[in-house]
């Protein structure tokens, strides 16, 4: 089974709700063709068929239900999770889903996590690389990680689209360089805080080949002991506890570096639909096939590792 772990979907109703609740950036997602109209779904399924992708795991990030107002966050999270549940029920051979949580509100997030996994059948949760300015190592999120660890469930991480809170990463740089920088910062927050080893049964999935992590990991190992001596294990060891999707925009050297540095066994197929669609969606698969990696690694990356990771082998 070929599973795309990194695919987005936003109905116009959900985006309108986010806008009404105060997210003034949500509307921009509506022009990307990742909605729920019959035409949009038909076009999506046609692209999946062309690329040989059987199943997509949907996530709302980077348009999550994160609000400082708890009632707003809960309303938006329940709305979109119910919407995803209906889509999975209507298209069981095409969609699974990661739940959105009403963060940063811990108790409400735990309640929605339980509902989404136990009642709606979701595979885990999706979270942004930072949540309203809070890092992923914020103590408020530890109970969520503890519950995911107890369940052996998935934490899918995606850039928030805030330029890593840097004034130097303006709107013209937010996604082309800001997103992989956010990936890199987030994974290091997790590693320095010891989250991967503290919650070993929680399956963390980072996008975009881990950002700059494959290139920087040897440097990090050398710098870490004097800069962050409280880190509980060597960063390169912690990095091997995490999974990474293959969204690399058809750049084979980056994919090969990630396989060599992080391990081909830690890579899973991602498309980043709708940011990669049409030929770009197909290339998300074909560039892995053309990468020159060993045939068994390619097969595992495209068709096996995600199935095992998500527990889909018995579906």
Automatic annotation (TrEMBL):
A Pfam cross-reference name: Amidohydro_2
UniProtKB keywords: Lyase
CDD domains listed in its UniProt record: metallo-dependent_hydrolases (cd01292)
UniProt feature coiled coil, ranges: none
Protein name (database record): Amidohydrolase family protein
Lineage: Bacteria, Bacillati, Actinomycetota, Actinomycetes, Pseudonocardiales
Organism whose genome encodes this protein: Amycolatopsis rhabdoformis
InterPro entries tied to this protein: ACMSD (IPR032465), Amidohydro-rel (IPR006680), Metal_Hydrolase (IPR032466)
Gene3D superfamilies for the chain: Metal-dependent hydrolases
Domain (Amidohydrolase-related): residue spans on this chain: 3-312
């Amino acid at each position: 089974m070929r599973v795309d772990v990194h695919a987005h979907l936003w109905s116009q109703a959900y985006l309108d709700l986010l806008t009404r609740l105060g997210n003034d950036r949500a509307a921009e997602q509506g022009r990307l063709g990742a909605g729920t109209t019959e035409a949009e779904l038909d076009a999506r399924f046609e692209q999946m068929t062309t690329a040989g992708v059987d199943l997509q795991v949907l996530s709302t990030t980077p348009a999550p239900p994160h609000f400082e107002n708890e009632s707003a966050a809960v309303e938006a999270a329940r709305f979109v999770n119910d919407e995803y549940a209906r889509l999975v029920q209507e298209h069981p051979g095409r969609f699974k889903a990661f739940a959105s949580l009403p963060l940063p509100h811990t108790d409400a997030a735990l309640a929605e996590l339980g509902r989404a996994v136990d009642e709606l059948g979701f595979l885990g949760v999706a979270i942004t690389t930072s949540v309203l300015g809070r890092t992923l190592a914020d103590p408020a999120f530890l109970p969520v990680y503890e519950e995911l660890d107890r369940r052996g469930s998935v934490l899918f991480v995606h850039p928030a689209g805030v330029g890593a809170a840097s004034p130097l990463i303006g709107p013209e740089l937010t996604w082309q360089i800001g997103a992989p920088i956010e990936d890199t910062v987030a994974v290091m927050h997790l590693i320095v805080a010891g989250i991967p080893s503290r919650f070993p049964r929680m399956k963390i999935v980072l996008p975009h080949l881990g950002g700059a992590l494959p290139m920087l990991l040897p440097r990090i190992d050398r710098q870490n002991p004097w800069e962050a001596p409280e880190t509980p294990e060597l960063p390169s060891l912690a990095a091997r506890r995490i999974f990474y999707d293959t969204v690399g925009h058809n750049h084979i050297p980056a994919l090969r570096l990630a396989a060599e540095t992080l391990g081909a066994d830690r890579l899973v197929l991602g498309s980043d639909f709708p940011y990669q669609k049409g030929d770009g969606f197909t290339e998300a698969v074909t560039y892995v096939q053309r990468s020159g990696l060993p045939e068994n690694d390619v097969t595992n990356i495209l068709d096996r590792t995600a199935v095992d990771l998500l527990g889909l082998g018995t579906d």
